[in-house]
Design brief:
about 90 residues; alpha+beta; Alpha-Beta Plaits; about 40% strand; globular; Acylphosphatase_CS; hydrolase
Length: about 90
Amino acid sequence: MAEICLHAYVIGRVQGVWFRKSTQAQAESLGLSGWVRNLPDFSVELKVSGEELAVRQLEAWLSQGPELAVVAEVKSKVIPAEELPFPFVIV
């Protein structure tokens, strides 16, 4: 399987709703490396790498997020591979 690295921003009501912790749990369950963090504009940013199918599954999950989140938009793009923390971390 091919590995990819994805950089994403999640916009909407995504802070204070367990978005980062839920993203970490999803990423860990898929065996992915990377990190997630809150941004000052109330969005969430993440970088993730791993098997393409698993990364795409996480990318699809980001559109809904945890139960309390209201995701308005996900902006994501594949980026060149880079060394990311494993297991997935909240920064």
